[in-house]
Amino acid sequence: MTSAHEARRLFPNCQPAVQPTKPTLMVVVDTEEEFDWTAPFSRQATSVTAMRHIGRTQDICERVGLAPTYVIDYPVATQREGYEALAEWVQEQRCDIGAHLHPWVNPPYDEALTGPNSFTSHLPASLQRAKMRELCEAIHANTKVSPKVFKAGRYGISHEAVAAFDELGLTIDASVNPCMNFTADGGPDFTDFNSRPFWIDYDRAVLEVPCTHGFIGWARGGGTWLHAAAESLRGLRVPGILSRTGTLNRVMLSPEGNTLSEMIALTRALLADGVTLFSLTFHSPSVVPGHTPYVRSQSDLAPFLGCIERYFEFFFGELGGVPSTPERFRRDLLGGVVTTHV
Description:
Elements: H1 4-10, E1 15-16, E2 24-31, H2 55-63, E3 69-72, H3 74-78, H4 80-91, E4 96-101, H5 125-143, E5 149-152, H6 159-163, H7 165-168, E6 172-173, E7 198-201, E8 206-208, E9 213-216, H8 223-232, H9 238-244, E10 249-252, H10 260-272, E11 277-283, H11 298-318, E12 322-323, H12 326-334
Parallel strand pairs: 2-3, 2-11, 2-12, 3-4, 4-5, 5-6, 6-8
Antiparallel strand pairs: 1-7, 7-8, 9-10
């Protein structure tokens, strides 16, 4: 599943989970405020105007019978403009709502505003728990939903955060981002994790549904160490050379920063490895140009939406895949519906 050392450090009681028989896709949307990704972190950047247009991706999901999971952060959960449509959709079973923690805009504000402190995992355990509690209570107050899915902002999950799940009613984490190492910025190291789901704690029935992230190219078998070596030579643009020559390319199942052909290639490669559960992710502000690096202008919007739509056509058409959600997948596991072992 992962490097034993790193997995046991973050999740001491983890063990593999069973995967679906058919290719299964879920969508997890990081539903958050708009901010300048190149600027220092600010407690004042809390606008959620992009949520007026979240129906752009909701409609695409609904056309294939897929209910997205919106993991919403504190600015979205506490402003009517942010949560109103989602609160209606969840009552109609058109989506699920989870929790997404951006520490810098989530009270209590007891920490210094620094880069490392933007990772939940970098904060004292008591402050992690307090911020998570404030977030979950705000979500329940304004949407009537008790969130089950948690995703740490910047993927900053920690053992201490997971320890608070029982108290808060959380049962699923979606923070692990395989192949990524955030330690240089103060975050966790997921270098040796892969995209397979696993039980963080089987006895507590706490499930991890990682982001879908991996390598394509003829050298993908040595992807972890080869990509790390290439990154260390970034000044020579080695990662770009490896990608252009078809040797190695790190791809995330996301329309942000990845092409449709790359997403399809990653899906085929992971299927060949025995992975059948896939999680497509993106950030809610990307539905409006100018809020993220991935949709900078109006000319970027149609390709962004089209990438999602065409990937769905591939997954549910050519692959014969089926839609799911993190909550539904966990229920299926606990109910014995998922029976294919890997």
